[in-house]
Amino acid sequence: MFKTMKFTPKNEDAVSPVIGVILMVSITVILAAVIAAFVFGMSGNITKTKVVSASINRPNQSMIVATYSGGQDAATLIGLNFTVNGQPAILGVTVPSGTAFVGSTPSPNNGGLVLNGDTSIPVGTSVYLMAPLTSNFIITGAFSDGTTQIILQGAL
């Protein structure tokens, strides 16, 4: 004869609807935040970082040489400021012959600032700085739009 089959319903509800709702709510919140940022002007305070570079090496125990290497924004760099161990750098007066200085000849009184007026500093310009062994240095660039930015920072 016939046997009766017993049917037991199983709960096969997936988690997919819950995850779908959470994702939709998340996307809506993120989209609202981005729109609010533009509407209320929060994105207007972001400044563009300039892309320029410099390198440092030590030819002897009392001096370091900073060389400007250029970069995408090289045409807008009009000045370099050098600090060694938190103090304005003293530009080396005794340097190899044939060294080009931007602006004026070096002097201990100029605080490590090398300016080239309103024209860009030539790529490859080297500046000799007095620096004892294990010195911390910072090279800051001044740009034609009035902004300043740290170009290189480290110890040597």
Helix and strand arrangement:
Elements: H1 16-39, E1 53-60, E2 63-70, E3 77-84, E4 87-88, E5 90-91, E6 113-115, E7 126-130, E8 136-143, E9 148-155
Antiparallel strand pairs: 1-2, 2-7, 3-4, 3-6, 3-8, 5-7, 8-9
Describe what this molecule looks like in 3D.
The protein is α+β, with helices and mostly antiparallel strands and 156 residues long. It contains one helix and nine strands; from the N terminus they run αβββββββββ. Strands 3, 4, 6, 8 and 9 form a five-stranded antiparallel β-sheet that branches. Strand 8 (136-143) and strand 9 form a beta hairpin. Residues 97-111 have low confidence and may be disordered.
Key phrases:
4-stranded antiparallel β-sheet, alpha+beta, 33% strand, 5-stranded antiparallel β-sheet, 156 residues
Helix content: 10-25%
Structural class: alpha+beta
What is the typical, i.e. mean, pLDDT?
77
Q: How is the main sheet built?
A: 5 strands, antiparallel
